[in-house]
Amino acid sequence: MDWLLQQLINGLALGSIYALIALGYTMVYGVLRFINFAHADVLMLGAYAAYFVAPAVSSVVPLPSLTGAILVSLISVIICAGIGILIEFLAYRPLRKRPRLTVLITAIGVSLFIEFTCQHSAVFGADTKPFPKLLPEHDFHLGKLVVSSNDLVVVVTTLLLLAGLWFIVQRTKMGTAMRAVSHNQQAAALMGININRIISFTFGLGSALAAIAGILYAMKAPGIDPLMGVQPGLRAFIAAVLGGIGNLPGAALGGLILGLLETFAGGISGLSNYRDGIAFGILILILLFKPAGLLGKATVEKV
Amino acid sequence: MLRRTLLPLAAASLLLPACNKSGGDGIIIGEFASLTGKEATFGTSSHEGTLLAVETLNAAGGVLGKKIDLLTEDNQSKAGETSNVVNKLISKDGAVAILGEVASSRSLEAAPICQQNGIPMVSPASTNPKVTETGDCIFRVCFIDPFQGTVMANFVTNTLKAKKVAVFTDVKSDYSKGLAKFFKEGFIKAGGQVVAELDFNGGDKDFKAQLTAIKSAAPDAVFVPGYYTDVALIAIQAKQLGLSVPLCGGDGWESQTLLDIGKDAVEGHYFSTHYASDSSAPGVQAFVAAYKKRFNGKMPDAMAALGYDSAMFLADAIKRAGSTDSKAIRDALAATKDYEAVTGKIAINAQRDAVKSAVILQVKDGKFKYLETVAP
Lengths: 303, 376
Known about the structure:
Chain B: This is Ethanolamine utilization protein EutJ. Chain B: InterPro entries: BCAA_transport, Leu-bd, Peripla_BP_I. Chain B: Belongs to the leucine-binding protein family. Chain B: Keywords: Signal. Chain A: It comes from Brevifollis gellanilyticus. The complex is a heterodimer. By secondary structure, chain A is mainly alpha-helical. Chain A has one domain. Helices cover 70% and strands 4% of the residues of chain A. In chain A, the strands form two sheets. A two-stranded antiparallel sheet of chain A has the order 1-4. In chain A, helix 1 (2-32) packs antiparallel against helix 10 (248-266), helix 3 (66-92) packs across helix 8 and helix 6 (173-183) packs across helix 8 (195-220). Chain A is globular. The termini of chain A are far apart. Chain B folds into two domains: 4-143 and 281-357, Rossmann fold (3-Layer(aba) Sandwich); 145-273, Response regulator (Rossmann fold, 3-Layer(aba) Sandwich), CATH 3.40.50. In chain B, 45% of the residues lie in helices and 19% in strands. Chain B has helices spanning 2-21, 40-59, 81-92, 104-117, 130-133, 145-158, 174-189, 208-216, 228-240, 256-262, 282-294, 302-321, 326-334; strands spanning 27-33, 68-74, 97-99, 121-123, 138-140, 164-170, 193-200, 221-223, 247-249, 270-273, 339-341, 344-348, 354-355, 358-364, 367-374. In chain B, strands 7-6-8-9-10-14-15 form a seven-stranded mixed sheet, with helices on both faces. Chain B has a five-stranded parallel sheet with strand order 2-1-3-4-5, with helices on both faces. Chain B has a three-stranded antiparallel sheet with strand order 11-12-13, covered by helices on one side. The longest helix of chain B is centred in the N-terminal third of the chain and has 20 residues, at 2-21. The A-B interface holds A 2-3, 6-7, 10-11, 13-14, 119, 121, 125-128, 130-131, 139, 141, 146, 148, 217, 220-223, 225, 227-228, 231-232, 262-270, 272-273, 275-276 and B 36-38, 40-41, 76-77, 171, 196-201, 203-206, 208-210, 212-213, 216-217, 229, 232-233, 236-237, 240-242, 257, 260-261, 263.
């Protein structure tokens, strides 16, 4: 029983990270109808930003501490939002009028470009770097169960960001404009919405989310390398599809399900080798019966 | 038009091989190593050891009166890349022998190519038995996993007094799977019981699912034959979950990165490796001094020592062969009986493996501390 509950906690903690990354994928998709594959690499850049910012911050605010962690995250978030806007401006904007497939391939190109540029020894180098401690850590023991403070931080942050994002998209002027652009770009432009500004904002917001996810991921496993985003990025993308791409609560739900599936499959002696096989097998089954994802609405493509 | 573009090309292709082989009358030795990527610190260490050996040899006048030309290629710790670079080293650069590499998976990729071309290959640190089984041109200067696995099994049984162990294997790595297998066999033979067997994929970041399962099996020790990055994260998460038994592993642990990432979580754990830099043997101290002088005070790890040994061992064989003919070098390598290397005395057996001793180190106060030597 303890075993089961502990795995539940592990799974929720892992799933929350996937959910957080999936939010970024799904939001950009919701507005622009394309998958920003570079999202996972912005996540990595977020972790590296924190890695380089932390020593500078620690000379002002001692680390690990809550204020220090917030300060480091804030600076990293701003850096990554800038990078996200820059990527959109340089790589995606010139292709706005081209077929969506072109943009998709470009996104993969941007992703590979970032990964392999950062692996060069003049940039970050390919070796794993130790990620500094940002928050004081504490393990809470409830009977035989252990909950680490990092896992709690991940879950709480994910919930807060999900709520915040929902608020921005549904309740603010910017969000209304985002939804309008998502619905029909031309009509939105005719209504006086500055399309470029909205799309830049969307990318900035998505990259800010990626930066936070990257920092939380690095806190969980404090060894960072330029390819650290690939694996969770892929999982999160699948989580977004599972939940119904374009749907924010769906992305969170998909992330949690994927995290739990992986944890339970990985925790069985003899089966742990097949953990991804089992997790993804179940996903395929779900998608067979709900092709639009769990919370996605089936749409009819106009031909 | 066609002729105009083809002519310079043809001329260039005539010149190219001449250019590459005209690096003087040196002896061309190819080296492939994981200089970037996941096992980069291992690859860099062994490369630096090799480089130091070649520089030392050349400073003393080279081998057979010729300088050694060391050509190094990086395989980025990636599958597939090794065959490209080794093919290049042999067919384009004309290497008479190949040195490389640390990871068994990638040495296994290079071995068939060297064997086919009849070029002798010396691996510094690939401990998986399959590497030299490829053919009679493949050698190594390190011990093999059946020995290392047995050493750790005996250590866990006798010194740690463990009756029940869990084994946590990296299924992506031939090295890890081999070591796990031989450890299990040795441990069961010594009367122990394996209570849980779990797997991970090298490069994973979350190990809590498997570690929770290991914890619930209540072992006295956990054998984790992985590489240092993964092991550091495993140690951290094991500590978080309250799994406080000793973790044990093999030579894949020995890297400064293990300490940098793992910090206090890796404290007190044990692993077997090839040599201890705090050993008092004269050969070791001379090597440590030379290495520190060449690489800005950096402490040589086992991979550096093995990289050094692999190049010195090969040079010794070339001297004894009295020629740079690949076949003659191979025969001289195979005939080695009593070569005094930094990492201990080496005898090459019928399987072209080095028969030598192992040491066991413990992580203590953020350093690797020598515990005991185990003879073959």
